[in-house]
Specification:
heterodimer, A: alpha+beta, eight-stranded mixed beta sheet, 11 helices, 39 strands, B: alpha+beta, 18% helix
Chain lengths: 640, 651
């Protein structure tokens, strides 16, 4: 081997930051992990080329595989989204560990493929998979790739971690004179440090973090976007042909940019048929509210949600005529169509952008395209603004969808006028589950009748469950919803009223038999009338170093009433005392009382805050555990 | 696996004078007919979101130049009744796999009028993994519409296949046809229906046609043969009447498959020997097999996509290969180690039952290795499985057993058809011993948990424990030992005999020992305690819903549960309600051989209350006539879940 080649090989080996890493020591230290990132870095490079600004992302990742079995950690993935960004090049390599020594190995980058996403019918994001042959436990894989950014407005947010521990993370923005950027850290940024360097006329902004811990994901928790450390970056200005091109990132400019995406669909003339359609839909409506309700319902009923993310069409809605004719569209298609139809009916309706609850920022704090991921229509009324999300099939006029409550809506009055308004939370007493059971004891079975009334989001969600089932599965659905006590519970002849009748509460009647629920021992009967263990869904899983809070989909009240006809000659040995709790997050009351020969349980629970911060989870769980004790209380009925 | 082997059939076909008949491919035209389909669904179907009044599947072979090509046209008409029907049908996802799309057309009709018409140009092409998918969002589809779809594909050149003809919707009129050039004869067989085949010669083609009405909607039953119960058709080339060439029978297929897997063995024999040298150790043949299997399954990554070089030397170098390459590597490794084996090839019994009388490649989908000296199997495709019984999906299934016969330095395969043995109950036991201490002051049950699981009873948990990282072990196994206990915390968890590379461990039951602190199992009733003892055994399956049974009972494997629960009676309390803990429900066949059962009993020893229970299923096939008894045993276990013991506070 010639000296030059030998030098290059040496250099290439030294380029691994992990040269000093001892896999045995790492395995000991991170015994819970299959892999860790030794280094995760990215350079966002701005440079002038032929008088125009060129932006590239240079990503470098090194992982050490600690899992002894090496089954599915030997792959990487490169993702990019044409036309906003494109793939330039990639190099993958490995260092294969064997008996205390490393030797160099290879990596192979696959051809381009489409990403598959469950909720997106067509997704234009492309991926390339990277495979590393011949790996062994302790091996290190290294991936370097370059992406070109074609639209400076679509700079992606950068995550310092995607879950596994990261020993060293570093992100740099390298920019020549004349380029200015803005940035903001979000999530758990306590370990992130920032500095600025200048080198050869270039300004280098550097964020780094060391020893980032494992971040875990929880089903009942806030989205990872709320707690993974991440960096939002946006371009503020650059030079082109001797002139400064400025990107105004004021809220006003941000809205104008957003409006440019919908301008065509908002201005496209509606055909005569649209006018006729509006007239026919609202012909029997007597008030503006009724007119708006009718048009909202028409869009909900006639336009199916299908998400097609195809380049700029991910931002630009189709014109309303096409959406009507197709019978399908995504959120922005529906928002624009509904706004136009309402307008046609003479109602002050406007489309609005919104970031759903999974987004950790509001527009007013960060004017970044990533702050928004949804569109709705809004309607001005005498009593305030109504938020109309036609992707939610069951919501009546005036009730926003669950996932936009508490979020900021940016309403486009016209191409120059915008209003920023917070979507209110729907109050708990609007979302009620009231469940009443009249029952008696027959052997070891509890038999009786049930009546359930659902309002608000409870009503909407259960209605949606009916809608997504074929009629011959309705009974099965109701049995699933109302079964309680144990899996021998029989729900007999369930009936639903007001199904698909917008605006009304859903109510159900059924007969019920719960076998094996009553225990007769000697002259006593044991029974627990708390047939649903609400505490199970209320308790937050705090295992594994949780870093995010717990979320409920909506504020709600749940009231359970059980009227038990006591068997002849039996009386409760002792009724538990009434217990009440009232705090900032919830309130509850469980009480038992006698009325004639009936024993009555009244159990009430209200969620007053839908988001329990991570720091408050242990307090929350203590509250739930107190409720759990009450729910786990059986009664003894004694023969007199 | 056998797809590429058809070149042999095609070879015979091409060199038999047929090329003289070669002609340009005739693209068979196909007409829409939705407007002529009358709504004639059963009343029971009126509550369904969709109904399929018409399904035609037309498979045809054509001679194109010197090749025999295969095409298929699928023509569905679906009536959409409600919102669910619209949501289920307004997005069409057409994966092409290795097929080429010739044409596709989708149209929507309302009241007999066409309101939308889509062609191939409206589809979006997507490349996913190694598969091309065509996507279409269907316009104008609303309740009350019919959606009519014709998909015309050029299929691979296989001369056999399986088509299922029964789906989730009832089909009003079903037509299946197979058209082949006149000189070819095919064997065609329909399963799970009494419909009769029509075989005609028209215009130089031979037509095999099945037509039948009212194919009922397929509904899978619990503990059944699943898709093996669906209506399906098998077809395979039988004879070329021009030259009397006949299709291969199973013995020939076995030989061909063997050659594919083991061909040119001497070219790489020494590489393989070197590769497995360090792994090939053990005191006896069984230990050597375990060691080699473990080495291969933990050092080679099996990939399903990308360009993969399955040459044995490349596999050894790259340490990854396709499933097929792994089959080759594993077979060759044991041959190189001089360990006697047989290749076993069959198909999943939950897809179809192997038909010994119908000689078709379509039954030859899955490979296992059988080691006659130890009488056990290896399933190369099962990364977490190890030497032992055949996979549960193959038990009792007929299979080709291909025995290597040495021909000098090379091998050839001799085939026989045998039944894959069903293991006995005794070796598939799941033993659980719980020591329960009640803490009345904190409403807590402290549980010492011990579990021993062998063979099928361990359900792949040993492999899962071995392969998962420690954090994953916690995630999964903490939940596993907690059973249904949401309010349980795991104080300590230890597994034993999970090292899959150690023969000594693999021959013993997989062990789990844990210490649990649970608040779910104990409730209060005044001063008394209620122990939900039934929940301690974990949530049991149930068959409470009383439905007419349509198919025989088919289980995954014979298995037994032995459960011992030792409860320390808290001081100052006395247990009550023990009479319900005595259960004896067992069933036997006419010869007195135990079939299935559930038993439980209790005894008191000092301050210990000891429950002993057993649940077992000795076979995997039971006739429908025994369903009521079978259901009762399943429900006995589910009923046990509801049992409680009251500990009454003594005055």
């Amino acid at each position: 081997m010639g000296h030059a080649i030998r030098f290059l090989v040496l250099l290439s080996l030294l380029s691994y930051s992990s040269v000093a890493q001892d896999p045995i020591a790492l395995r000991k230290r991170f015994h819970d992990e299959r892999q860790i990132y030794l280094k995760k870095s990215e350079e966002l490079v701005f440079k002038y080329s032929d008088n125009s600004l060129e932006i590239t992302e240079h990503i470098h990742e090194e992982r050490i595989l600690l899992n002894e079995k090496m089954l599915d950690d030997s792959e990487d993935e490169i993702a990019y989204a044409p036309p906003f960004s494109s793939f330039v090049s990639a190099e993958a390599s490995s260092r294969i560990y064997n008996s205390g020594r490393y030797r160099s190995g290879s990596g192979a980058v696959s051809e381009e493929k489409h990403r598959e996403q469950k909720d997106v019918f067509y997704d234009d994001v492309r991926i390339r998979k990277v495979a590393y042959p011949g790996l062994s436990p302790g091996s290190i894989v290294q991936l370097d790739y370059i992406l070109r950014v074609h639209d400076p407005l679509f700079l992606r947010s950068i995550y310092f971690s995607n879950g596994p521990p990261v020993l060293e993370a570093e992100f740099k923005v390298i920019m020549p004179e004349g380029v200015r950027i803005g940035w903001k850290l979000k999530g758990d940024s306590s370990l992130v440090r920032f500095r600025i360097e200048k080198k050869r006329g270039q300004q280098i902004l550097i964020w780094n973090a060391s020893e980032l811990p494992r971040y875990r994901f929880y089903n009942d928790g806030q989205s990872y976007k709320h707690y993974l450390p991440q960096l939002y970056i946006w371009l503020e200005a650059y030079q082109e042909k001797g002139q400064e091109i400025k990107f105004n990132h004021s809220l006003d400019a941000f809205n104008k940019k957003n409006y440019s995406f919908i301008r065509s669909a908002m201005k496209h003339p509606l055909p005569n048929t649209a006018k006729a359609l509006v007239d026919s839909v609202i012909k029997s409506s007597k008030s503006n509210f009724e007119r708006a309700s009718a048009l909202f319902k028409w869009v909900q009923d006639h336009i199916r949600y299908i998400s097609i993310e195809d380049g700029y069409s991910g931002q630009v809605p189709r014109n309303p005529e096409v959406v009507c004719s197709n019978g399908y569209g995504d959120c922005k298609d529906m928002a624009v169509l509904l706004s136009r139809l309402l307008h046609e009916a003479g109602l002050p309706a406007y489309p609005a952008w919104i970031g759903t609850r999974e987004i950790p920022v509001h527009f007013r704090s960060l004017q970044h395209l990533a702050s928004s991921n949804h569109m709705i229509a809004t309607l001005k009324t005498d009593t305030g603004l109504l938020f109309l999300d036609a992707t939610g099939r069951e919501h009546g006029l005036g009730r926003p969808s669950e996932f936009i409550q508490g979020r900021e809506a940016c309403v486009a009055i016209d191409s120059n006028t915008f209003e920023s308004i917070m979507v209110p939370w729907v109050s708990a007493d609007s979302n009620k589950w009231v469940d009443t059971l009249w029952c008696r004891i027959k052997g070891d079975t509890l038999v009786g009748k049930g009546h359930v009334i659902l309002s608000g989001f409870y009503r909407d969600n259960i209605t949606q469950a009916f809608r997504s089932r074929t009629k011959d599965k309705y009974e099965e659905l109701m049995k699933g919803i109302f079964s309680r006590g144990n899996d021998k519970c029989k729900i007999i002849n369930p009936q639903v009223n007001n199904l698909f009748s917008s605006g009304n509460s859903l109510n159900f009647n059924f007969e019920i038999e719960i076998d094996h629920l009553v225990r007769k021992i000697d002259s006593n009967i044991y029974i627990n009338l708390n047939l649903e263990k609400a505490w199970q869904r209320l308790l937050a899983d705090t295992s594994g170093g949780r870093q995010n809070g717990k979320e409920f989909d909506f504020l709600h009240q749940r009231q359970i009433l059980v009227y038990l006809d006591l068997p002849s000659g039996y009386l409760p040995r002792k009724l538990p005392d009434t217990k009440i709790e009232n705090n900032a997050y919830c309130s509850w009351k469980i009480s038992y009382f006698m009325k004639g020969s009936q024993l009555i349980l009244n159990s009430f629970f209200e969620i007053k805050k839908a988001e329990i911060p991570f720091e408050e989870l242990s307090v929350w769980n203590n509250i739930v555990n107190r409720f759990k004790e009450l729910e786990n209380q059986s009664l003894i009925l004694t023969k007199q | 696996m056998s797809k590429r082997l058809n070149f042999i059939l095609l070879f015979l076909f091409l060199y038999s004078g047929i090329t003289a008949l070669g002609q340009a491919p005739e693209r068979k035209s196909y007409d829409f007919r939705a407007s002529t389909v009358a709504e004639s669904r059963d009343k029971a179907m009126l509550n369904r979101s969709t109904w399929t009044p018409w399904y035609a599947r037309r498979v045809y072979y054509e001679i194109v130049g010197e090749e025999l090509k295969r095409y298929a046209i699928s023509h569905f008409i679906t009536a959409v009744s409600d919102d669910k029907g619209v949501e289920d049908n307004n997005k069409i996802r057409l994966p092409l796999y290795s097929n080429n799309l010739v044409a596709v057309q989708v149209r929507v009709l309302k009241d007999g009028q066409i309101i939308a018409n889509h062609t191939a140009a409206d589809f979006k092409k997507v490349k996913e993994e190694d598969n091309e998918v065509q996507l279409l969002a269907v316009s104008s589809l609303t309740k009350g519409c019919m959606i009519e779809t014709i998909i015309h594909l050029e299929l691979d050149d296989d001369t056999y296949d399986t088509d299922y003809l029964q789906f989730g919707d009832e089909i009003g009129q079903m037509n299946f046809s197979l058209t082949v050039p006149e000189m070819l004869k095919f064997d065609v067989q329909l399963y799970q229906t009494e419909a009769q085949l029509k075989d005609t010669l028209v215009g130089g083609n031979r037509h095999y046609l099945y037509q039948f009405s009212k194919v009922p909607a397929y509904e899978s039953e619990e503990y059944s043969g699943k898709s093996a119960n669906r209506v399906r058709v098998e077809y395979t080339f039988a004879t070329n009447v021009n030259n009397n060439t006949k299709s291969s029978k199973y013995p020939e297929m076995g030989r061909v498959l063997f050659d594919r897997l083991v061909g040119n063995f001497t070219d790489y024999q020494s590489d393989i020997k070197k590769f497995i040298r360090k792994a090939d150790k053990g005191n006896n043949e069984k230990e050597r097999i375990i060691a080699i299997e473990h080495f291969l399954k933990t050092n080679i990554v099996v990939k399903s996509e990308g360009r993969i070089d399955d040459d044995i030397k490349s596999i050894i170098k790259n340490k990854f290969c396709s499933r097929y390459g792994f089959n080759r590597l594993m077979t060759a490794s044991f041959l190189a180690a001089g360990i006697p084996l047989e290749l076993v090839i069959t198909c999943d019994r939950f897809n179809k039952v192997f038909d010994k009388t119908f000689h078709s490649w379509s039954y030859l989908n899955n490979l296992m290795l059988y080691f006659p000296n130890v009488q056990e199997f290896i399933e190369p495709a099962n990364i977490v499985g190890r030497l032992g019984y055949a996979g549960n999906e193959f038990l009792g299934q007929s299979a080709l057993f291909i025995k290597p016969v040495s021909l000098g330095e090379q091998f050839s395969g001799v085939t026989s058809i045998k039944t894959i043995p069903i293991p006995s109950l005794e070796n598939n036991n799941d033993r659980m011993v719980l020591q329960v201490n009640l803490m009345p002051e904190s409403n807590t049950a402290k549980i010492e948990y011990h579990r021993e699981m062998m063979n099928f009873a361990e359900m792949g948990l040993r492999g899962l424990y071995f392969l998962a990282g420690e954090s994953n072990q916690k995630d999964f196994f903490y939940d596993f030992v907690k059973n249904t206990g949401t309010g349980c915390s795991v104080i300590k968890l230890k597994a034993g005999n999970y090292n899959m590379g150690e023969a000594k461990e693999m021959l013993k039951p997989f062990l789990l020992d844990a210490e649990l602190s649970c608040q779910d199992y104990l409730e209060r009733a005044g001063d008394n305690l209620i122990l939900k003892v039934g929940e301690l055994i974990g949530k049991q399956s149930e068959l409470y819903e009383d439905k007419d049974r349509k198919t025989d009972i088919v289980l995954q494997f014979p298995h037994a549960y032995e459960r011992i629960i030792r409860i320390k009676i808290p001081q100052g309390y006395q247990p009550k309600g023990l009479d319900k803990l005595v259960i004896k429900d067992e069933y036997a066949d006419a010869n007195g051989k135990a079939l299935f059962g559930f038993t439980n009993d209790w005894k008191k020893e000092g301050d210990m209350l000891i429950l002993t229970g057993k649940e077992y299923y000795s076979g995997i096939f039971y006739p429908k006539s025994r369903y009521a008894e079978f259901r009762k045993v399943i429900n006995d276990a589910a009923d046990f879940n509801k049992l409680v013991i009251v500990f009454e506070k003594m005055p």
